[in-house]
Design a protein that fits this description.
The protein is about 0% helix and about 65% strand. It is mostly beta strands. It is globular and about 35 Å long.
Length: about 90
């Protein structure tokens, strides 16, 4: 079983944030949105997946197991009105 420390990083609204510049595992995210928006999880410039938030909401999403591997860097792009804290290890 692989264990790593889990670290959190703030991601501003309507921005692209390099959460970690290097190999990392995306473990989860907490977000707060003032309206409809999106969150894209990327490995460098490659989008792995996008979450769509339908309206005003706060919630968290946890990835089971070892998380999602980002080989080059973990990058998050948030839409307008959406802030997030990303957890990685």
């Amino acid at each position: 079983m692989m264990q790593t420390d889990v670290i959190g990083k703030d991601c501003a609204a309507n921005a692209t944030t390099t959460v970690y510049d290097g190999r990392a595992r995306f473990k989860g995210i907490w977000y707060s949105s003032s309206g409809a928006s999106t969150i894209a999880v990327k490995d460098g410039a490659t989008t792995l997946f996008t979450f769509t938030v339908a309206g005003q909401a706060s919630d968290d999403i946890w990835i089971p197991g070892e998380g999602v591997l980002c080989e080059t860097s973990l990058v998050i792009t948030t839409g307008a009105g959406l802030t997030a804290v990303v957890f990685y290890g």
